[in-house]
TrEMBL record:
This is ATP-binding cassette domain-containing protein. GO terms for molecular function: ATP binding; ATP hydrolysis activity; transmembrane transporter activity. The keyword Transport applies. It comes from Salmonella enterica. The lineage of its organism: Bacteria, Pseudomonadati, Pseudomonadota, Gammaproteobacteria, Enterobacterales. InterPro entries: ABC_transporter-like_ATP-bd (IPR003439), ABC_transptr_haem_export_CcmA (IPR005895), P-loop_NTPase (IPR027417).
Amino acid sequence: AGLAGFEDVPVARLSAGQQRRVALARLWLTRAALWVLDEPFTAIDVNGVARLTRRMAAHTAQGGMVILT
């Protein structure tokens, strides 16, 4: 998730982009078939957008669903 070195930092002290990556990492650890993502590309960098796009593609390729707002 691109958060190496921040394991001991409280989430409240992370930047908006880092907080978004934490939320996405939590999602990726679930087995939820449906992902509902509210403005998922907000506050993440280009690499994060690419990573999220790949994850969504893999999720849907495996039969999952994604709803974006």
